[in-house]
Design brief:
Number of domains: 1
Subcellular location: Cell outer membrane
Protein name: Outer membrane protein OmpA-like peptidoglycan-associated protein
Pfam families: Gly-zipper_Omp (PF13488), OmpA (PF00691)
Largest sheet: 5 strands, mixed
CATH superfamily: OmpA-like domain
Low-confidence stretches: 1-25, 30-43
Strand content: 5-15%
Keywords: Cell outer membrane, Membrane, Signal
Number of helices: 10
Mean pLDDT: 83
Oligomer: single chain
Radius of gyration: 18 Å
Structural class: alpha+beta
Strand order of the largest sheet: 1-2-5-3-4
Order of helices and strands: HHHHHEEHHEHEHEH
Amino acid sequence: MKTINFKTAVVAVGLAAASLVGSGCNSLTKTQKGAAIGAGAGGTIGAIIGKSAGNTALGAIIGGAVGGTAGAFIGRKMDRQAAEIKQTVPGATVERQGEGILVKFDSGILFDVNKTALKTAAQTNLNNLATSLTNNPQTNILIVGHTDNTGSAALNQDLSVRRAESVKAYIALHGVSGSRLTTSGKGFNEPIADNSTEAGRAQNRRVEIVIIANDQLKQEAKQAGN
């Protein structure tokens, strides 16, 4: 019974946060939406919501949110960094989500089929991303590898982990502190498209890089809001 009640509470909080954002969707900026989500869901609940939705990246962003005025402060900083990454890393899809940034690379840009060595052409994109991450040191970075469903679950899980680790090693080599970097491999467990088509499988083969505020930035944001 406790488990059921807890799940019900998670759903309720999630719906409340969504309702809060949706009520003024057209008039709110992404920074303001991020503040609303953080205030409505909270860190722990947000992480569970993201996990339950089958989206590790979203869970990390919502789970790291502080909300309120501090969240809006963080959001403004993320707005600027996201704009910088969009300008300097043309091979990536850059999305502002809540109080964080989601940078997504199709695996075809970074790796050959079933390989974990970075393509030469991919290195320019990651060099520029590493520069932005270095210039904005008050963040933590989660690198998540994903595959399509071709092959066994074990093979794909291993491939997703090794690809995430490959990206981590490269940007660490180019100036990003290893203490800021964590990795996760999800295999084919978090598809964003239909694995029954080649176009869908291509979308599912990806690496996501999540950028969220570290404790120092959160503290600065809270002080700025006082």
